[in-house]
Amino acid sequence: MRKPQDHTLSSGATIPESGYAVSRRAVLSGLGVMTLLGASGCSPTLELPSLGPIEPSGGMPPVGVDHMPTGSIRPIPPISVDSNITNNSTMYASLTDNGIVIPAIPFQKVRPEFRRQIVIDPTGEAPGTIVVRLNERHLYWVQEGGEAIRYGVGIGKAGFEWNGRAEIQYTKEWPTWTPPKEMIARKPELVKWTGGQPGGLDNPLGARAHYIYKDGHDTGYRVHGSPEWWTIGTQASSGCVRMINQDVIDLYNRVKASPTKVPIVVA
Fold first, then answer.
1. Where do the catalytic residues lie (predicted)?
2. Digits of tens for pLDDT over the chain (267 positions)?
3. Structural domain range at position 17
C-alpha cells in the first residue's frame, strides 16, 4: 500500500494527504452544486436565510431570541375605567335610595358573567343603545370607543318573551306595579293590587323601571329592577327584562343622562 504523503501549501505549511483528500472532495462537491444551479436556470449565487443581526461580540444571537416582526398581530385594547364599575363588593353593597335601604347582594352566589362589567362591544349598535341578548341573558349599554357595559338579566319564560326594536319612552324611580288582567287570572291572589302596588322592596319592578314603547305604543314590557336577584341569568319573568336593583339604578342614571330617547334592541 502507498504511504500517505504530505502536501506543501504555497504558504509553506503542510497538511496530511488525508486532510487534503477531504478538502479536495468538498471543493469538487461545491463545483457540482454550482453546475446544477447553472443548468436549472437559477442564480449561481447561493443565498442562505438570514440568521438575524450579529451581536456586538461578533457571535450569533442567543438561542430563543426572535428577531422577526410581529406582522399583523394586533394588541388587545385596554378596557376603560368607570368609577361606577369597580369591585363586586362596592358595586353590590347596601345603599339607601330615596329613603329605602336596598340590601347588599351576595354577589358570590351570582355567576361572574352576570355581574356588571365593561367589555368590548359585541353588538355593533350605536353608542347610547340598550341591547338585550336573550340567549346570553345579558344587557349591553353601548358606549363610545367600541366598548359596552354588560349586565346580567333575567328574561321571560318560554312563550312570554318579546323581541324587536323600540325605544325607552320614559323611566321611573320605585315605580308602582299594576299586574295585568291575564296575570291576575293566573294568580288570583294578586287581585289586591288591581289599583297598583306602591314602590318598595317587595315591588316586582324593583328600584327602577324603563318603559318600552314601539311606534308610540306601550309594549307592556319593561327593563326593571327586581328584589329576586337569584333569578338573574334565568327565564323567570312574565316577559320583562329584570336586573339586580344596584344594576338597574346604574343603568337608569345612564339613560337619564342621554340627550335623546334611548333605542333598545331585544333579540
1. 224 (proton donor/acceptor), 240 (nucleophile)
2. 444 454 444 445 554 444 444 444 443 344 343 333 333 333 333 343 443 444 444 444 444 444 444 445 555 556 788 989 999 999 999 999 999 999 999 999 999 999 999 999 999 999 999 999 999 999 999 999 999 999 999 998 877 778 999 999 999 999 999 988 888 998 999 999 999 999 999 999 999 999 999 999 999 999 999 999 999 999 988 789 999 999 999 999 999 999 999 999 999
3. 7-40
Cβ-count burial of 172 within 10 angstroms (0-12 exposed, 13-18 middle, 19+ buried)?
middle
What domain count does the chain have? 2
C-alpha cell read off for 175: 315605580
Contact criterion met (CB below 8 Å) for 235 and 241: no
Cα distance between residue 261 and residue 21, in whole Å: 91
Assigned domain for 256 exists? yes
Q: The CATH number of the domain where 237 resides is what?
A: 2.40.440.10
Choosing from 138, 210, 217, 240, the catalytic residue is 240
Set of cell numbers at residue 259: 340627550
224 as an active site residue: the answer is yes
Start-to-end Cα distance in the chain: 94
Q: pTM of the full predicted structure?
A: 0.70
Residue 201 lies in a domain: yes
Q: 196 and 176 in contact (C-beta within 8 Å)?
A: yes
* Rounded Cα–Cα distance for residues 194 and 192 (Å): 6
| Same domain (yes/no): 22, 154 | no
